[in-house]
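Sat 14:20. Reprocessing the chain from the morning session after the first attempt stalled halfway. Input below, unchanged.
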Amino acid sequence: MKKYALIILLLSFPICNAEVIITEIMYNPNGPDTYDEYIEIYNSGNETVDLVNYTICDSKLYTGYINKTNKTVHLNTSLNLTLDSFALITDGGSGTEVYDIFNVSNSSLALHISSSSICGGLTNSGKTIFLNSKNITYDPEIGAEGDGNSLQLFNGTWISAKPTPGYECIIEPVNDTNQNDTTNNDSFSNSINISETECDTGIRIYTIRLLNSEIRSNYYLYLFSNMENQYATVRYWIEDLFGNYIRKPRNTNIDSKENKSRSFTPPKIYGSEVYLIKANIIDESCDSNSSNNRAEFLIGVKGEEEPEIEETDEEDKEEKKKITLEILEFPNEVKQGDNLTITIRLKNPTDRDEELYVYSYVYFGQQLASEQGWVPNRKLVDLEEGEETVIKLKNRIKESAEPTFWNIKVKVKFDEEEIEAKDEVKINEKIFEEKEQEKYQTLEDKSVYAKDNELDGNTIYVSDKERDLDFSKYLIIIIVLISFATLLGSRKDNFLKVREFLNFDGKLRDKRKDKGRSPKSKTDNRNSRQP
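Finished this time. Tokens:
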């Protein structure tokens, strides 16, 4: 018997010491992965945990879940995960159908993320899931590959079992090392054997095998049961052999012994195509056997004869049918710490709707000049057939980015394909430009200061230039006087005249005072003095 196994990588500490752990992963549901995937977490610690700072694959957790049909938030309660309780994480970008499809426990905590897919999509080939600093990598070899089961943690081992969202896993796996122990094997077999008296409900599909392109035809969903008055909710859709939707999934309620008629108009095609009509029971009133809860019917569609065209024209036609990405606008230069806005155009010339993931970053080799990693601004874009749209992406440049030329890359991912566009941007040093701005601001402040003081009337502002001009005037006068004194200095009497002219010793002033005084007045003055 196949031995259950799981590759668990880089666990930060053992499960027995963990507080919040991942206990169930629905990575490949029967229906569309976009709306039916979920991750169950469990509080195994000793107290209530506030999940306000918790993330799943770097996506923040929000309360409640978003219903896909009406986009409203349900069970919007709390981020507090109590002791020994479960929480269910679903996507919130396009809503979820998990609560409509599965029997979710009413006591579990409902949470969602803002993205349209958990961890960028829980791929069917395995993926690493990050819960804060802890991470695990699930292995599809365990099972749950679209068979209606999920991966569940049971007694420290991961197994494939019927989904129990919000409930404790109760399935007991078979221990391969005890294959000779009939007690253990019988215990497991008895837990899944179906008695003839138990209720069994199944689904079948009927229609004609060959349909014509662009001509409406009917097909029938038939619900059967070994009990009377049974009913079920059935999801049905049509896809090609590559898994692409020709008719998107829808739900309907069917009573037992009833043929539910549905119509289908095959698209216009050339030559012939093969499609699959599929149906799954997602909720039943009574059923203990899930092996007949899925049905599919192979049909052929005949179209018109393919027109004869030149090979080059056919190549051009195929080229036009590809989704295209074009960078329209972005600044050629940007400063450290600033936001870089990139405007792009997406075109979808194909004949089907596409969900695209778009993001951008600034890099050189393995170094990033933009902040927040390689997918900092990832957006989900729903692009209908024949539609085109213009999108703006923002990247914040690191303060530490080297001032030089860097590469810009815009990536678009859809299905298993990827397209990209590149260009170049120059990052300038922010410090240099700030100094220039400060210098300009200083000059401007001085100009305003001088203007204000002129209007004041009390304080006069003298600029540096005016002060230098006044000093130059005084210097010229001193030089002229010294030169004049030098010319006259060859004769002593001339020098004395210069001194008298400059009035250095004060004698000239006394002589001028004595002129005009009579001798008599001097005698009178002496005689008038008291002894």
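The two ends are 150 Å apart (CA to CA).
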